[in-house]
Amino acid sequence: MHEQKEHLFLIFENLIRIKSECSCGIFSECTLSDITLKQIHYLKTIDQNKEVTFSRLAEITRNSKPTITEMINKLVRMECVYREPCQHDGRIAYIRLTGRGEMIARAEQKALEQVIERLMDSLDDQEINLLIEILKKVR
Amino acid sequence: MHEQKEHLFLIFENLIRIKSECSCGIFSECTLSDITLKQIHYLKTIDQNKEVTFSRLAEITRNSKPTITEMINKLVRMECVYREPCQHDGRIAYIRLTGRGEMIARAEQKALEQVIERLMDSLDDQEINLLIEILKKVR
DNA sequence: TACTAATTAGTTAGGGATTACCTAATAATA
DNA sequence: TATTATTAGGTAATCCCTAACTAATTAGTA
């Protein structure tokens, strides 16, 4: 019982290590070592809300519009987002993620994808199916 | 093949969700919603280096001693660390983690432990052994 | 219909609190 | 005299604000 737990702990630590190596890889590819938690959070919010404008982002994050302008200017300088003017209304600009911005916003997800690929390379078909059946049961 | 991947992705997302629920639980137990990444990093460094003094922590983190004094004062106010004067040398104080400080420094680890307990509750002995055998192969 | 008035979207200007660093000087101990 | 930690004073960046502004659009009215 206790031995099993120890085993599982080591195995999952290994998986987590692989995953964080992958996500570090993603971040260092973006060469943004001093990005802040807030900035990452803004990028995720932009990623999750399609067609987001300055006013809308201010609303979602419950900040003032000048705060959003400032934050977006910063993220533009970091090459994570850009402004796309609305075709139909000259007052409106949409905030879009660049490739780099999207990479950062989805780093967790992408790292997980890489871990799964590693997993699929290491195991045969039957083992993968077995793994799926077992882990499905965890709630 | 692609279906397996999709399955695995959903299953691991679920595990990660469980884990981050656990670690959020740990953090909210500590009632420290506005702790910074730097502060967490200092706590981890203190946890990993036994008998660490102000000078030593300055050396490890490559900061000046006044920076360390200030940071430790902040962490003391947050009840995450305390000073323990050295018995043999009145100039020296060791930096020790409080229960709360240790909780935060090891949140990841503790969350993983909770996930594994959940896993062991959901699976029988044979399944656990099978899981260990399969996941062992991932490198 | 055309023109003014009001509204809306985003920006600028100026400011404040906090974090996280620094050097120089100082106090206490070895 | 050397070492450990602290105090004093300062800087830069982040992340937030209000008030005032510009430009674009919409509504109201003559």
Describe the structure.
The structure is a homodimer of 139-residue chains. With 139 residues, chain A is mainly alpha-helical. The first copy, chain A, has two domains: 1-30 and 106-139; 35-103, Arc Repressor Mutant, subunit A (Orthogonal Bundle), CATH 1.10.10.10. Chain A contains seven helices and two strands; from the N terminus they run ααααββααα. The first copy, chain A, has a two-stranded antiparallel sheet with strand order 1-2. The radius of gyration of chain A is 20 Å and the shape is elongated.
Please identify the oligomeric state.
homodimer
Low-confidence stretches of chain A: none
Order of helices and strands of chain A: HHHHEEHHH
The biggest beta sheet of chain A reads: 2 strands, antiparallel
CATH topology (fold) name of the largest domain in chain A: Arc Repressor Mutant, subunit A
CATH superfamily of the largest domain in chain A, by name, is Winged helix-like DNA-binding domain superfamily/Winged helix DNA-binding domain
How many alpha or pi helices of chain A? 7
What is the CA-atom radius of gyration of chain A, in angstroms? 20 Å
CATH architect. name of the largest domain in chain A: Orthogonal Bundle
Protein topology:
The structure is a homodimer of 139-residue chains.
Chain A (H helix, E strand, L loop, with lengths): L1 H28 L7 H12 L5 H8 L3 H13 L3 E5 L7 E5 L1 H7 L1 H16 L2 H12 L3
Antiparallel strand pairs in A: 1-2
Chain A binds a DNA duplex (30 and 30 nucleotides) through helix 4.
